Each structure stands twice: as C-alpha cells, then as structure tokens.
Amino acid sequence: MTAPIGISWADPLNVSSVQLKLLSEDAQWRALLHYDQLVSRISPNSRAAESDFFLSEAGKTDPQAELEATLRAMLSAEPLDDTHAICRFPARFLWLSKKSELTSLLFPKPACQRFSQWYDAISAQGITLIFPASFVNNPASAFGHTFLRLDHGSADDDTRLLDYAADFAAATHGENALLYAIKGIFGGFDGFFSVGPFYKKVEKYSDLENRDIWEYHLNLNRDEVTMLTFHLWELREKPFSYFYFDENCSYHILALLDVARPSLGLIQSMRLWVIPIDTIREIQGHPGLVDKVVFRASAATKLHGRIDQTASSAQTLALKAADSSQDLDKSIEENSGSPENLASALDLGYDFLTYQRIRTRSDSVEEKQRAWKLLAARSSLPPAKALEYPVPVVRAENGHKTAMLSLGVGRSEDLGISEFVFRPAFHSLSDPLGGYLPGNQIKFFETVARYTEGRGVELNRFTALDIMALTPRDRFFQPVSWRVNLSYQQYQREKADPLGLGSLSAGGGRSYKLAEPILAYGLIEGAFEYSDMLNHSNALGVGPRLGLIYTPADRYATEISFSQRNFLTGDTHSEQLGSVSQRVNIIENTVLRFDVNYTDAFQNSYWSSMIRLERFFTP
C-alpha cells in the first residue's frame, strides 16, 4: 500500500504529530467523522450527536485526536470480539489500511461475527439513489424524500424489492404536524440512519401514500460501495442533528455518498437549505455518476393508467365487480359488451379492489372472497392486451428549480407600483408543471415587497406557509382537497393608513377535472385574523374559495380564483378577493406572468394589475 504524501509508519505506536495531522486532513477521514465540510478546516465539528461515535473524548471537534485514538484502539489485542474497534468501525479500518503502509500482520483479527452476518445478508454490490415524490399530507415529506438502495448484484429491476434500503429520518415519536414543524425547524429532533427491506419502503411510499418513485443508479465502483456499506454499520443507533431545511434526510444521504467518493464534495455544494429534488440535480451535475434512471409508478398511478385505457361501460361494470355487496354473476350476465370488454372490466375491478384493500389495510373475508371470484370469472376469458402505464414526460429533477425571484411593475388604482418577490420554496399551482404533481402547491416564506408612488417601500405580503392539495375526484376516487395558509397581508384603505393583519386559514372541499387541461375546485375555509387595528384585535369567519386552473400546454397556464370571507365574531366584516393570472414560459426556469387582482375589504374596493418576470433558481 502507498502512504499519503510520503508518510511511512515504521512504528505505528509512535506516530509523529505531523504525520497524524497530515493524515487527519484527508477528506475521506473527515467524511467518516461527519464534520461540517463548510467550516471543518477552521473549526471542525461533527454532526454526530453522541460520544459513543468517537473513540477520543475530543473526537467531535478534533479529527487528529480521533485518528490517534482510532489507530491505538485498532492495534489493541483485546478484546477480540464484536466490541473491538475494528468490528465497531470497519470503514475506518478499511480507510486506515489503504492510507498507510501498515500491513495486515500488525493488526489483530477479532471475530466480528455480528458485522459479518449483517454485511453478508446485505451483500451490496451497487448503490441506487431513491426519490419518492413529494407528499403534502405528511409534513416530513412535503418536499419529497431521498434514501439509498443497496443493490444485490444478482437482482434485476423486477426483483429489487428484495434488496435493502438505507435511510435517514427524524425520530419524531408521533408528534402532530404543528409540533413536528416547530421542532423540525429548530432542531428539536435527533435523526437516525437505518437499514431495512426495500419492499417496506415501496409499500409505504408507493402503495399507501400514492407516491411515484424515481430510481437513480449510481456509477460507484466496488471499493466505494464497500466503504459506504461498512460505514452504515458504524452509524447504527447513533443520533445525528436533524433540521428540517438543511440537515435533513437528503443532507445526510449526500454525506454518505461523500464517504464513498470524497472527490464528489456533495456536502460542500449545499448552500442555505437542502431540498431533496435539488440534491438530485446536484448528483446529476457530476457527469457519469448516474448511469441509469428508472421510474416506479405508484399503485394509484398504475390504477389511473388502467382506468384511462378502459372503456366507460367497462368502468361501470368494474365498479360493480369490485363491490362485495353486488351480485357478481348478475352483473356479468347483464354485460352487453364483448368478451374483451368483460375481461377489461374484471381486470380493472380486481385491481381496484386490491388497491382499496392495500390502502385501508383491510383483512375482510368478504373482500378476499370477492377477489377470488373475480379471478375465477376472469380465468375463462381471453387474455387482455398489455397496458402501458404512464411515465412522466419530464423527470422530477428536470422540473423548474425550487427557489424563485420576481420583479414586477403595474398599477393599483391610479398609482404606479413595483414589486419584488422572493420565494425560497417550492411550487405554486400555476407554475410550470413538468416534474411536479398537478394540483399541489407548497409555498414557504414567500416575501413580497412593494413600492407605491407616494408611500415608498412596504412589506405587502409574507406567506409563511401555503399548502394546497387539489386531487380531482372521479367515479373511482373521492379524495378531499384541502388548503392551509399562514400569512401576513396588507390591505389598502380609502382614507386611512394601510391595514396589515396576520391570517390563519384552513379548509377542505372538492376538485374535479372538467376536461384534461382544466382543474376546478371549491373549498370551504375557516379563517382567523389578528391585528391591533381590528375591533377586539381579531376576527373569526368562514367562506368559500373557488378556483380554476387551465393548462393547455406546459408553456402556458391560466389560474382564476375567488374567495369570500364573512367574519361574524370579533371585528365583523367581509372580504372578497379575486384574481386572474396568466403564465407564459419564456425560456427554461424563466416565466412571464400577468396578474389582475380585485380586493373588496374594510370599506374599500380596488383593482390592481401587474406584469412580472419570474426566475427559478437553486439557492
């Protein structure tokens, strides 16, 4: 073996401090200790939160002290069992063996039975980065998620479910969404790495949460795969700092890849916050690192694909076939279509029944018996043609980037206005749709600064959170659409200073596809407003929100919305808000938008219009 920069260790127990310092500055060593790569050269500090991860009391902040302690512990002759340093830290041992001239004869050979059994069971020969799409019903996955699959060499795309997955997640202990958001943002959770069956992840994300999955196979060599797998053993049950916006699942998964190949410098490339899809773009930015991309459709996507390719009459029969309370034989006898139509209906009915059972975790005897009857009836009919399940035209990482800056000019009544908008994340209903889920909106910390003639610059609007999930209903699916908004809004008044108030609103309702490019929705929302300029300083009300989104092509979109709120307690008043927004893509990640807004609130009604240029970027 060749020692780094000419270092030769003739006496491994008497290593000079200069030699140790030089070796402790190695990028892979620091990656193994999970130092913050942005500041580690000046003030090293590991993301690991537990002293048991270190062999030196100073190891969390001193890579040289940890290296010396690691060397001495690994050269120790006792105890030669699973508690020996070589068994506890096999990746460090592998790195140390490659970075020095120490021969294997100098090291003891402990019986690492637990590690050997674990490593043999995983048998990883490849690594795939997995990206389940965003899921707004779970705050932890609102922006998506990333984890690694440890690929067995003998598996193919059809048998990957038997592989293992390596994940990082916060230990939330069942906190509700509000507590999760607060504690997650301010570091109130520890995060842990875990290794488990990949099929369990697919069951959760694809089958239960209806999330499509993108798989990015990484071009790592065998030594890099081994180093990453060895390191996962070292991370078992070790707590790490967790912050929702930066030190999250994606950050720590990138740290694992830096352990495998330090030259990637993935952690160093991360900036103010880390959004999973941005990490996919970062990995794609390294030529040759991703050598294969696979789309794994969710159970819902597959079912929608079958529905779209089934005739309307067969859909009607399929619903009856999947309903255990309906007489299946009678429904089949009443079918006036061809044998192919009946076969298509039974296929769809069986798939829909199976989907419902998975979603509800049903163990109903009646539903099991119904499934067997469907299969029996289907077996006597001719085989159906193979279905082609939909694959998105635009891959997840090729959608618009996640942060947005906007500059606009326009008029409000007779006054000229200019606006500056900054949105750190993530996507609005009328943004370019490619790579994003239709009908989903997630906006965090959107800030609108407005200049008005005669008044100067003011904070016009601040949206801390605005989430909408508009999933259209049809004869097979009846989801509830919903919205949550927490924001500050400034209202103009005719003969008084502008009124700024904070608002929390939430509501639910329904959305429908009127035609392929048109999504319409109607919600009933409750709202709470607060301002010391209101009577009793607050107001509580309710009212409808209606909207329509027309997207004839990804380049164009029109959004129309109207809301009315009637406040019946506190400050009694009503508000009406209407808007029309037209978006046109100019070039990639650049949009021209024209907005017209109507406001009727606090004894004043007015129109405003604006043309704005929006630029999406990676922060």
The percentage of residues in β strands lies in 25-35%
Look at the structure and give the mean pLDDT.
87
Shape category? globular
What structural class do you assign from the helix and strand content?
alpha+beta
The order of strands across the largest sheet is 8-9-11-12-13-14-15-16-17-18-19-20
Our measurement of the CA-to-CA distance between the termini, rounded to an integer number of angstroms, reads: 42 Å
Number of helices: 17
Number of strands: 20
Largest sheet data: 12 strands, antiparallel, barrel
Helix content: 25-40%
Radius of gyration: 29 Å
Residue stretches low in confidence (pLDDT < 50, at least 5 long) are: 1-11
Describe it for me?
Strands 8-9-11-12-13-14-15-16-17-18-19-20 form a twelve-stranded antiparallel β-barrel. Strands 6-4-3-2-1-5-7 form a seven-stranded antiparallel β-sheet. It contains 17 helices and 20 strands. The model is unreliable at 1-11 (pLDDT under 50). It has 619 residues and is an alpha+beta fold. Helix 13 (299-308) runs antiparallel to helix 16, helix 14 (312-322) crosses helix 16 (339-360) and helix 16 (339-360) runs antiparallel to helix 17 (365-379). The radius of gyration is 29 Å and the shape is globular.
